[in-house]
Design a protein that fits this description.
434 residues; alpha+beta; five-stranded mixed β-sheet; five-stranded antiparallel β-sheet; globular
Length: 434
């Protein structure tokens, strides 16, 4: 643990939904839910107005609609999120050269590498306030919550305390006073299963966790997790802020509108996903040793199965064969709603001819594979009309698309409906990625 509060964690508030509210004036101050809009969609982000109705990330779209039926349900515009995130990350790098992005909407910043006169609490507090104001300016009004503390763990915890649009600085020496009353679930890696094991042992708070001997925690949770929690319960987290984070895995998955029951179709989907994973690995110069499949059954039970090779590979055919063999050991008779393939244990070299095959040779049977649903006019998509100008898709169906004509720089605009094949109406395509 550092002797100064010099690790900053920034988290953009309800990021996807906030970008949509920024760009769609009629949605400001109203509940917005971004995610899959189909029958099996999942909430990616809910605005704070929607959260008051109990809507949260990872909730099924069906439950979200039941809780907040009057919300705007949008499919998401990732080009807009990426562009906004790029602006924010640039602001962070102007503050310090050591920035560790965790996702599009959050990052750690090492203030010890920043051009600050000192690292006193007043100095880092002022730097945090300037940063929040700068983020507000470059994003067109988005807000961020900041935590500053002596470690990554404490900075992350601090950034959750004053949401949204707030900041918490943990002065050095007060870390345990902050942590002890908190529930053990604030510790990274303490999910429902670990929390339940700790509860059965009578451990609910970090103060109670701190009182447990290290050996006892190891017996309860295993070597790695037991040692890790013992140190975090004492606010010990020596992890540095890394400007370049190594990729831990590369994966592809898909959710399907109807349950899959044909094993040949499942094998075909895994094969296609494995080829995509292999192509991404080669593009980025990676190979990997551990192949994992993810299978979500009809009753939402999620199964993960893995196999580790003796040497790394980036060959899609090899990955596919292992994925299919892992599927063979699972009972999928009730139907499958999600399939995915991933490779971890990444390396930057490949053992050629691992299985005596040439790359991309695959003996998988060719079958007709279901395609994820693709909508021409997804809700929230940017469009332009030859006469009305720019707007976004309010909704579509039965041969009709309804558009609200407004942008981030206009007042709330009018709503008009058109035939979905109207030649005057066009999708605004995002800029091509490098």
């Amino acid at each position: 643990m550092r002797s100064t509060a010099s690790v900053l964690h920034l988290d953009l508030d309800a990021f996807f939904a906030a970008v949509e509210q920024r760009d769609k004036p009629s949605l400001r101050g109203k509940p917005v839910i971004v995610g899959g809009t189909g029958g099996r969609g999942v909430v990616a982000t809910a605005s704070y107005e929607a959260r008051t109705f109990g809507v949260g990330s990872a909730m099924s779209g069906r439950e979200a609609r039941a809780r907040c039926p009057h919300a705007a349900f949008l499919s998401g515009r990732f080009h807009a999120y990426r562009e906004t995130s790029t602006r924010v990350m640039q602001v962070l790098r102007e503050l310090s050269p050591l920035v560790e992005p965790l996702s599009l909407d959050e990052a750690f910043v090492d203030l010890a590498a920043a051009d600050l006169p000192d690292l006193e609490v007043a100095t880092v507090t002022a730097a945090g306030e300037r940063l929040r104001q700068r983020v507000h300016e470059v994003t067109g009004g988005l807000t961020a919550t900041v935590g500053i503390a002596s470690s990554k763990f404490l900075a992350k915890v601090a950034s959750e305390l004053d949401k949204p649009d707030g900041m918490t600085v943990v002065p050095p020496g007060t870390e345990l006073d902050l942590l002890r009353p908190m529930k053990v679930t604030v510790i990274p890696g303490v999910g429902p299963a670990t929390a339940e094991r700790l509860r059965r042992a009578g451990i609910h708070t970090i103060a109670e966790l701190e009182a447990v001997e290290e050996d006892e925690l190891v017996r309860l949770l295993g070597q790695a997790q037991g040692h890790g929690l013992w140190h975090l319960a004492r606010a010990r987290d020596p992890r540095p802020v890394l400007a370049e984070r190594e990729a831990k895995s590369i994966s592809v998955e898909g959710t399907y509108d109807t349950d899959l029951n044909d094993r040949r179709v499942m094998e075909g989907l895994l094969t296609r996903q494995a080829r995509d994973v292999g192509a991404r690995m080669r593009k980025n110069g990676f190979s990997g040793r551990t192949v994992t499949i993810k299978v979500r059954l009809h009753d939402f039970t999620t199964l993960n199965r893995s196999s580790t090779l003796s040497s790394p590979t980036d060959d899609g055919a090899t990955i596919a064969r292992i994925a299919r063999s892992l599927l063979a050991d699972l009972d999928t008779t009730g139907g499958v709603r999600l399939l995915g393939v991933g490779v971890s244990g990444l390396a930057d070299w490949v053992q050629e001819d691992l299985f005596g095959s040439t790359p991309e040779e695959d003996e998988a049977e060719e079958v007709a594979l279901p395609e994820p649903p693709r909508r021409t006019w997804p809700p929230g998509a940017d469009v332009v009309h030859d006469e009305m100008g720019q707007g976004w898709v309010w909704g579509s169906g039965s041969g009709v698309v309804t558009v609200r004509f407004e942008t981030a720089d206009t007042p709330p605009g009018p709503v008009r409906s058109f035939r979905d094949d109207d030649p005057a109406l066009h999708r605004l395509e995002p800029p091509a990625e490098d």
